[in-house]
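All the exercises in this workshop are built on plain-text protein records. A record pairs a protein's sequence with a compact description of its fold. Read left to right, the backbone structure tokens trace the chain's path through space. Once this layout is familiar, the rest of the handout is easier to follow. Here is such a record, shown just as it appears in the course material:
>
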Amino acid sequence: MGRVWRATDHVLDRQVAVKEMRIDGLDPEDGRTRRERTLREARATARIDHPNVVRVYDVVDEGERLWIVMELVASRSLERVMAEEGPLRPRETARIGLGLVEALRQVHAGGVLHRDIKPGNVLVERGGRVVLTDFGIAAIQDAKALTMVGMLVGSPDYMAPERISGRPQGPPSDVWSLGATLCAALAGHSPFSRDTTLATLHAVLYEEPRLPAGAGPLTDVLRALLEKTPQARPSLPALAESLRAVAHPDEPPTRALRSPTRPELPDGSGERPPEGAPSGPAVASRGRSRVVAGTGVVAVVVGVVLALAPWSGGDGDQAGGGASPKPSPSPTSSPSATVEGTSGPPSPAPGAHQEAGGFAWATPQGWRRDVKTGAEVHYTSPDGTQELAAKSSLARGDLMDTWRTSEQNARQGGDYRKIRLEETTYKGRPAVVWEYTFTLRGARWHARLLGFDQAGKSYQINTWYRPAVEAAALKTYDEVKESFTVL
């Protein structure tokens, strides 16, 4: 939906972040919806004045463009911290959690739901301040809702069960996402992250969370936050007390958080697996202020809203995030295969984009980029008919056995139909290919996933596409797959 620029407010002589919004839609109605969402985002955030919530200073409306002028936060996202430094310790995680609790107390008091709390939307300053940002899909509870037909906004790994199943949402939904985010801080990934989005959605709805082994004193807190039933989750004041006991153990505790017993859902509650997929300078001016976005800065994609076809990703970096794992899409280049058995490190294909997950690939020009974690990145075609994804993770046993388990889970929803799951080779090494179709909100999709292990890590190169564009989609996939290089 846009990018963020580091900019200078010449009237007040201060550095700011300017979020340049893309409001051109597929049609006039889509453009109107984007504009409404942008203005609503600015209004939602501007209502809140709190050190743990990113501040909005101004909105500039220049016809075809909208600009949101925000506080520039000199920080890294929690996602970036995890990618660069690895999982956090319980005490550090609890301190971050306390900052997010204070942010949510202000947000909810203002009648706002954030709806997309995840590591990419949490900023951590060197001094320790935690800032919640990117209210791109926030819903003001007393405002008229915007209808997005066929779209699910948010990140499945951090999305509360009631959001996925279409049940009523409220503050407990943000509390659940907070719990998943704190788990990710401790483990490096969401407790519901699976090999495919369909398996992830199933895990959120029906499986118990895989709590981090190093959670220690936060184990019971996390288990309570991730209760499937919203009413069973703790209140923010109670959560703050429990986190404070871990973050500041020298202070005398007042009360501890109890993990409530989950009420059993009645039969016929309607909880079913949802249909889903596996997983130059710019100048803005108005009246009192003139904001110039300078050259030579990092522009990052923000506020991305992906249809849950085939994967509903999150938006990622944030206002003033500085270094970001989400640069603008890389240019198209001619793919070149990795040469095995040569001396020295492998060379990426010319023009290939190097990812934090330890690989590089040449991706199509103009496609929308979305980073799920530091080790997983997605690209979506402009017309939304194809998505490409690549990721890396630690190898966990036999790859075929792992994918067979994921395939069994995938059978439980989304009108899934298996085409093949078999061993193959990729650039001379053993690999696994998984191909299937599924239906999302009445539309048919085709998936092709390729996985292989190398040097203790697993890598995936995946695509999802509409059958009508199969020939072009597979040509693009083959080119991108050929350019993939493990670094």
Notes: The first strand starts at residue 2 and ends at 9. The CA atoms of residues 35 and 418 lie 40 Å apart.
